[in-house]
Structures are given as C-alpha cells and as structure tokens.
C-alpha cells in the first residue's frame, strides 16, 4: 500500500493478487501473440487496440464502474449520515477519505472502486441505507474501505476487464482481417473463423475462473479486516444476514440488472438458482458468518 492504514494486512491476499495478475497478464500476452501471428497483416492494429483499451481501463475504471452501476457522487450536505460513517472509519483507519456516492437502487448493497486510495470511490445503495442501522452500515462500509486499503479493488477491476478486452480485441481483429480478405480467395479465412473465437473463449474462461477464485478470498479478507478495525464483528454479521435475507424479496428484474457487477458488491445479487451461483464471486454466507463468529470469540478473550 502506498500509505499504510490501520487495516490488518493480509499476506495471503497479496500473494493471490500477484499470482492472479501474473497469470492473467501472461494469458493476455499469449493472446496478443497469437493474434499477431495469425493476423499478420493486422498486427499494428491489434497492438494499438490492445494498448489503448488497457490504458483507458486503468485510468477510467472507477468512472466506468460508477457509471455502469448508477452511482452519483454526493456531498456531506446531501448525505450526512453516509459521509459521517465514512469520516469516522477513515479516521479510525488513518487513510484518505474516498469520494462518496449513492446508487438509486432498492437492491441492498455497497461497493468500492478506484485504481488507488486517491481515486477511490465508495458507494451505498438507497436500499442498503434504508434497511440497516447505523452500526450495521458502518460495518459494511468498513468492509468496502478495506478493499481500497488492500488495493484488491483495483486488481479485480483490471483482471475482470482483461477477459472482456480479449473478446473485444479478438473480434475487432477478426473483422479487420475478413474485411481485407473480402473478394479474394483466401484459404486462411475459414481457419480464422474457427481459431479466433476459440482463442477468445479460452482466454475468457480462464480469466473468469482466476478472478472468481481471487474474489472469494478477498471477500473473506475484507470481512476479517473490517471487523477487526471496528471491533464489532457482530454488526457486520447482522448486516450480512439482513441483506442476504432481503435479497429474496427484491424483484427479479432488479437482481438481473445487478448480477453483472457481483464481483464488486458486498453481497452477490442472484435472480434464482443459476450457473452464476455455482461460480459465485462471494463465499457462502455460512462461511462468512462462521469466520466473524471466530473473530468475535477471539476479541472477547
């Protein structure tokens, strides 16, 4: 961390982040190499697209995520309770205060985004603020701020985007190659139609699995760090139980809108039993509550 906060460091999380970024970065380099080799005439275009999209994602990831989730930045006058909670936690953690936002959604949730502490943003939904008591809200925000302190939110943003970027870049390169091949007898076009989508699919699946493994661990790490900072693991457990129970009462259409952003949320939004629940970005509720119970016992001793 550029500035050491009072959040408990997690070496296991750091090791997993480094490993995930190395493997996904290696996968990304291999993909670019394959595209350059297969689409020899289009290699400058491939490199420009790859570099440009990656730089744009790195610098504007916080704005893209906030816009996608409907977050609007608010002042202390507009949201005094939310700002007050963030102020208290940042003072307790000795870390810079991030920008504060609210998303107008009945789905009770919160998320943090940003490439570093100076550019971070923490957001709570109106549904979350309406349902939680003050101590419970602080527990959730402490969890989210730990993502910022540990920098895992930036790693997740970049890692998640690389899989999507692989698909976009592959399709653009394929279209460019096919356009130049139109009207010519090119025996390689048929091979491209099979090879390029296959490579794109493999890259996406591997990056998806890697980010899911990291995401589940980082949520447990954030629960642990957030509970230790406030010294009240029971309030975080209460918020988890309350939010998870209320998810079942949220209209399916609202949950479906929220599902693509589960990796960033405090609690995942699922619109029923689906494959998404099998590859969840979060550990099971029981596992999170069990960990908080152990922390409560340790603090009591």
Automatic annotation (TrEMBL):
Cofactor(s) of this protein: Zn(2+)
What Gene Ontology terms for biological process does this UniProt record contain? proteolysis
Q: What are the record keywords, sorted?
A: Cell membrane, Hydrolase, Membrane, Metal-binding, Metalloprotease, Protease, Stress response, Transmembrane, Transmembrane helix, Zinc
Active site (catalytic residues): 144
Q: What Enzyme Commission number(s) apply to this enzyme?
A: 3.4.24.-
Which residue intervals define the domain Peptidase M48 in the entry? 76-294
The protein here is known as Protease HtpX homolog
Which lineage? Bacteria, Bacillati, Actinomycetota, Actinomycetes, Kitasatosporales
Gene that specifies this protein = htpX
């Amino acid at each position: 961390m550029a500035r050491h906060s009072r959040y408990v460091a997690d070496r296991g999380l750091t090791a997993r982040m480094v490993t995930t970024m190395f493997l996904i970065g290696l996968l990304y380099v291999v993909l670019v190499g394959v595209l350059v080799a297969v689409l020899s005439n289009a290699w400058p275009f491939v490199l420009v697209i790859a570099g440009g999209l990656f730089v744009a994602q790195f610098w504007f990831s916080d704005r893209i995520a906030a816009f996608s989730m409907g977050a609007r930045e608010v002042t202390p006058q507009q949201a005094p309770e939310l700002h007050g909670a963030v102020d208290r936690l940042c003072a307790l953690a000795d870390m810079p205060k991030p920008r504060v936002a609210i998303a107008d959604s009945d789905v009770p949730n919160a998320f943090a985004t940003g490439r570093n502490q100076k550019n971070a943003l923490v957001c709570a939904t109106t549904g979350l603020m309406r349902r939680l008591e003050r101590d419970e809200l602080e527990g959730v925000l402490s969890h989210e701020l730990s993502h910022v302190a540990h920098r895992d939110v930036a790693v997740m943003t970049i890692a998640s985007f690389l899989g999507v970027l692989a698909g976009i870049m592959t399709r653009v390169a394929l279209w460019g190659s096919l356009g130049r091949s139109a009207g010519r007898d090119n025996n390689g076009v048929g091979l491209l139609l099979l090879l390029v989508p296959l490579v794109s699919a493999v890259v996406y699946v591997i990056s998806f699995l890697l980010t899911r493994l990291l995401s589940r661990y980082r949520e447990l790490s954030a629960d642990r760090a957030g509970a230790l900072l406030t010294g009240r693991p029971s309030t975080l457990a209460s918020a988890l139980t309350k939010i998870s129970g209320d998810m079942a009462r949220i209209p399916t259409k609202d949950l479906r809108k929220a599902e693509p952003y589960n990796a960033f949320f405090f609690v995942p939004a699922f619109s029923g039993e689906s494959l998404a629940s099998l590859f969840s970005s979060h550990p099971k509720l029981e596992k999170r509550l069990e960990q908080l119970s152990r922390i409560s016992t340790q603090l009591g001793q």
